[in-house]
Amino acid sequence: SGWWTHVEPAPRDPILGVTENFLKDSHPSKMNVGVGAYRNNEGKPVVLECVRKAEAKIAGSDLMEYLPMGGNVKFNDLSVQLAYGENAECLESKRVASIQALSGTGACRLLAEFQKRFQPDSQILIPVPTWANHHNIWKDAHVKAQTYRYYDPKTKGLDFSGLVEDIKNAPSGSFVLLHACAHNPTGVDPTAEQWREISAVMKKKEHFAFFDMAYQGFASGDCEKDAQAIRIFMEDGHQIGCAQSFAKNMGLYGQRIGCLSIITDDQTQAATVKTQLQLICRPMYSNPPVHGALIVQTILSNPELKQLWLQEVKGMADRIISMRHALRENLEKAGSQLSWQHITNQIGMFCYSGMTPEQVDRLTNEYHVYMTRNGRISMAGVTTKNVEYLANAIHEVTK
Ligand code: PLP
Q: Can you give the residue ranges of the Aminotransferase class I/classII large domain (predicted)?
């Protein structure tokens, strides 16, 4: 005995705490706008029709064998086509190393490990704020981290000059973590023009651009449009890295399906880089799971299913966008004198409302609305039935 007496409990995850408290509350009007998973207008989780159809096609196939260490190769190819564009030069010249990953988190973690092994003196530049797990991922990989300015609380928009300044001042050859679209938690993305400027500054500084793309299609409803930042960096000749997740845009959360890709000089280098990525996976989990990759492969390789998927992603994005408008209109209708324009300016799953932790506490304690204390509202939890209640509650605590 005595082996583990010194082990202290790990800090509680703030999001899980929100859900626990929500479940304990028996008030009929309670709302959970904490969790970042899509819900339909009934407040229910959704399995996409294209996923149901793909599963029907897969049923009975021989899917129990091990995948290769790098995962399902057809899945990887289809995944990078989605990110980089079907006719991308880097794909035609086969200079992209791609590997199946345990969703977006796993893809980020592999990249962080690869960075530590092969650019051991480099650091990672992380936006403020960001998805909290980004900090843990690079910390666990023992990569030195710095932050760069991103969000301006005054405008509830992008701190563009701060961002550019911080990226300019970082040591040359830094890795810069960029959210490809639908920035979490702020919902604030640079414009195409701003992306071009960021790309130019990073080119000059010889920084490495790493795109975390957890929401392709989920922001605007258009997968091509949501990849615009990546396409701009490619046009400018950056050799980027990209983490893709199919959790949100295909609703495959628990399947843990994603892809890490890195653009290299040529086909030989891509193959070499892939062997090293595989070597990182081998002692951790050997090879990735079969089912999610097969679902995505089936959808993306079948024109009919792909078309259905594109419609369904657009459906999810459109519902969220319409809830943004409804929330803003209801706040205005409730008589709020504050500006709520940022609700409709921001994009993707989340609205960074600008509410203070104290206002959020009142929202929870007095109105049974559950969310994280940073004021982040998951728009996926808002429906035509509860939007007016939410708006009135927000108005009451922000008067
Ligand atoms: N990156 C960002 C910015 C996210 O918001 C998320 C999920 O919330 C992820 C990555 C990873 O999600 P998953 O590992 O489920 O794909």
A: 29-394
Mean pLDDT along residues 266-274: 98
Written as one letter, the residue type at 81 is: Q
Residues in a beta bridge with 208: 175
Please tell me the distance from the alpha carbon of residue 112 to that of residue 314, in angstroms, as a whole number: 32
Query: Model confidence over 127-167: pLDDT tens digits?
Result: 999 999 999 999 999 999 999 999 999 999 999 999 999 99
**Amino acid identity, residue 389?**
Y
pLDDT digits (tens, 9 = 90+) for 332-348: 999 999 999 999 999 99
Assess whether the C-beta atom of 212 lies below 6 angstroms from ligand 1: yes
pLDDT category of residue 61 using cuts at 50, 70 and 90: confident
SS3 222: coil
- The closest alpha carbon to 72, from 300, 269, 283, 270, belongs to 300
Angle at 374 between CA 335 and CA 192, to 5 degrees: 85
Separation of CA 145 and ligand 1 centre (Å):
19
Q: Which atom of ligand 1 is nearest to the CA of 106?
A: 14
260: left (phi over 0), alpha (psi -120 to 50) or beta: beta
As for the ipTM of the complex, it is 0.99
Q: How large is the average pLDDT for residues 364-375?
A: 96
At 164, the amino acid letter reads V
**pTM score:** 0.97
Q: What's the chain's average pLDDT? A: 96
Protein residue whose Cα sits closest to atom 1 of ligand 1 = 214
The answer to whether 131 is a known catalytic residue is yes
pLDDT number for residue 16: 80
Q: How far apart are the first and last CA of the chain?
A: 57
Question: Comparing C-alpha atoms, which of 287, 240, 250 is closest to residue 38?
Answer: 250
- All residues at 6 or more sequence positions from 244 whose CB lies less than 8 Å from its CB, including other chains: 79, 80, 82, 83, 104, 107, 213, 216, 258, 259, 260, 261
Which tokens is 38 given? 């899509």
What DSSP line would sit under 363-395, residue for residue?
Answer: HHHHH-EE--TT-EEEGGG--TTTHHHHHHHHH
Determine how many CB atoms are found less than 10 A away from the CB of residue 363: 25
Contacts of residue 168, defined as CB under 8 A and 6 or more positions apart, other chains included, come to 201, 205
| Angstrom distances, CA of residue 91 to CA of 80, 99, 175 | 8, 14, 23
